[in-house]
Write a structure and sequence with these properties.
three-stranded mixed sheet; alpha+beta; single chain; about 260 residues; 3 domains
């Protein structure tokens, strides 16, 4: 941008010299149109309404889309141009749209390269949820068999009492303290936990199946009649050949919590 300013000033020198010369005539006819021309140049190249800038962005978009059509990883040169020519919000909108188009066209290599590059533009907590959502959409496109990953508690499972309230959490063994899934319950009938019960998009049952993780299965219950509390903690080895897993709770698995004084 500085180079453009310098070139503009340099190009104006002959006109300035002509206007300042004592013996020249019709200075107004030269100076007036010159000011208009240079102003138009500045508007065309650097204004936020600059048509040249819009044309450059459209050209860049077209070039990226040409690579998407052949499912190629997007060129580093084009990524550099995105960083140099777009604001953060513009880059976010671009990348969300480009990733969406890539996945819609089943150009998953292109989508993956776009998502990898886009992470730097989604740094706040709310923006990270958008980024994780893009990653989840890509993963579901690559592994459609995992989109309906489900963990079911067998309807014949043992229950220690009539349940007033309860909470089920699934964690990755030795993983982060963020649950893969979390649901509130008031009974154990027809309990099915799926990807929609995740706290963070993409960090869910499907990711556990994909990475063949062992699951920490935790339940906390409060009884209706006597306010007693029970809990259950167990490890679940998921069947990697089946994204639909069922678990039956036996009577000896329930442990009573000590009453608080």
């Amino acid at each position: 941008m500085l180079i453009f300013y310098l070139l503009t000033v340099f190009a104006a020198f002959p006109i300035i010299a002509y206007v300042l010369a004592q013996r020249t005539q019709s200075k107004g006819l030269v100076f007036g149109p010159s000011v208009i021309i240079f102003s138009l140049c500045l508007i065309v190249f650097i204004s936020k309404f600059a048509p040249i800038g819009s044309f450059q962005q459209q050209t860049l978009s077209n070039r990226i889309f040409e690579q998407i059509k052949i499912d190629s990883k997007i060129s580093v040169e084009y990524f550099n141009q995105i960083e140099q020519t777009l604001s953060k919000s513009e880059a976010q909108n671009w990348l969300i749209n480009l990733v969406g188009k890539s996945i819609d066209l089943n150009k998953l290599d292109s989508a993956e390269s776009l998502i990898t590059f886009s992470e730097r533009f989604f740094d706040s907590n709310s923006e990270k949820l958008i980024f994780y959502g893009m990653y989840k959409t890509l993963r579901d496109a690559k592994f459609p068999e995992l989109t309906n990953s489900t963990f079911v508690i067998d309807s014949e499972s043992s229950v220690p009492c009539l349940i007033e309230s309860g909470m089920i959490n699934l964690f990755i063994l030795n993983g982060p303290e963020i649950p893969l899934a979390k649901i509130e319950i008031n009974n154990l009938n027809n309990i099915q936990i799926n990807n929609n019960d995740s706290v963070i998009p993409g960090f869910d049952l499907a990711s556990a199946f994909l990475n063949q993780e062992t699951i920490e299965f935790n339940i906390d219950l409060k009884c209706m009649d006597n306010n007693e509390k029970y809990y259950l903690e167990n490890l679940i080895v998921l069947d990697k050949n089946n994204s639909f897993n069922t678990y039956k709770i036996e009577p000896n698995e329930w442990l009573k919590k000590s009453q608080e004084l």
